């Protein structure tokens, strides 16, 4: 069981070979971080059986009071709650901490008897226990839709 950066050791068909008009940037971004490997920009977890689970983008980092925290780490903790279907965490400028954290989530269509305030408190406590107190979001909001990229 190990976590780390997802890197590829061999080329594959259709792999990018450069960035138009900026080959040095391509080399710096994808090939210099881990010499001999193509760095995908994603984190991964490999089980002792050899299965891989993508854990999210490594560049989605929020710096809260000097603590670097991945958004995927927080989203993964929140998604374990029975009332949460999907979540997203974003950073925002904070005068004291440098960056603060806001959590938006889609509730599951279940009647658990949760109020929005109760659920927000439970999610903050869940993150505090699974990760750390500083990782708890400043704001929690229920939403009916999360923004998506074209690839989901």
TrEMBL record:
GO MF: acetate-CoA ligase activity
SUPFAM superfamilies listed in its UniProt record: Acetyl-CoA synthetase-like (SSF56801)
GO cellular component terms given for this protein: mitochondrion
Gene3D superfamilies named among the record's database cross-references: 3.30.300.30, N-terminal domain of ligase-like
Location of the AMP-binding enzyme C-terminal domain: 73-152
Gene Ontology terms: biological process: acetyl-CoA biosynthetic process
InterPro entries linked: AMP-bd_C, AMP-bd_C_sf, ANL_N_sf
PANTHER family: ACETYL-COENZYME A SYNTHETASE (PTHR24095)
Protein name in the entry: ACS2L synthetase
Organism: Urocynchramus pylzowi
